[in-house]
Each structure stands twice: as C-alpha cells, then as structure tokens.
Amino acid sequence: MVHLLSAVKLKPSVSTATFAETIRQLSASLEQQQLLSITGPIGKRFPHPIMDTDEADLDTFFVMSFESRAQLEEAVARMTGSEDLSAETHRQLWGQLDSYRFTCWED
C-alpha cells in the first residue's frame, strides 16, 4: 500500500468541522471511483517536548491509503486534471489550507 500523510494548518476562517466534511466528501468520491482505499481519522497535533521534533507550524493531520502507486497516480490525475466531483472538492480543500506538508511512503 501507498500512504499519504497530510500535515496542514487551516486558514483562520475555516472550522475543523468544515474541513472534516470536505475530507469526507473527497474520500467518498475517490472511494466510489475505486481510487482510494481508506482515509484515517483527522487528528490534532500533540506537541510532546521530546517526541514531536518537527518545527513546522502544522496542527492537523490525516492519512489517506491507496492500494498501489497506480491507484495513487490515477487519484492525483482525477483530482488535478479533470472537472469531476473529486477535482471540485479537491479545489475546495486547497482553498481551506493556510500551509501544508505532504509525505508519501509505501509498505
């Protein structure tokens, strides 16, 4: 599987509930198209003095998991290069972010 960790900071005008609903909509759309396996829960940062060494000002996290690199690439293509619901929801999501960092890994 391929996993995408999204670490973000929301714009001050965006509520956590609004962001969570947008993530739910995007995930449902991608899952319906068989372009996403699962999206984990949205979590808030726990600033542990020893275990949290990232200095970035990001406070909201979630993981999306894909069956393969091919599934990930197709999801990216749909979200960035088309006019379907996934692309529109993805644009809404981008508009909610103040800053972000993404990390992918494969297991």
Descriptive report:
With 107 residues, this protein is of the alpha+beta class. It has one domain (2-106): Alpha-Beta Plaits, CATH 3.30.70.100. The chain has 3 helices and 5 strands. It has helices spanning 16-32, 69-81, 85-95, and strands spanning 2-10, 38-39, 43-44, 60-66, 97-106. The longest helix is centred in the first third of the chain and has 17 residues, at 16-32. It is globular. The mean pLDDT is 93.
Q: What is the helical fraction, as a range of percent?
A: 25-40%
CATH class: Alpha Beta
The geometry reads as globular
Quaternary arrangement of the chains shown? single chain
Order of helices and strands: EHEEEHHE
Question: Which spans have pLDDT < 50 for at least 5 consecutive residues?
Answer: none
The biggest sheet, with number of strands, parallel, antiparallel or mixed sense and barrel status, is: 5 strands, antiparallel
User: CATH topology, which one?
Assistant: Alpha-Beta Plaits
- The number of distinct structural domains comes to 1
In short:
The protein is of the alpha+beta class and 107 residues long.
Question: What is the strand and helix layout of this fold?
Answer:
Layout: E1 2-10, H1 16-32, E2 38-39, E3 43-44, E4 60-66, H2 69-81, H3 85-95, E5 97-106
Antiparallel strand pairs: 1-4, 1-5, 2-4, 3-4
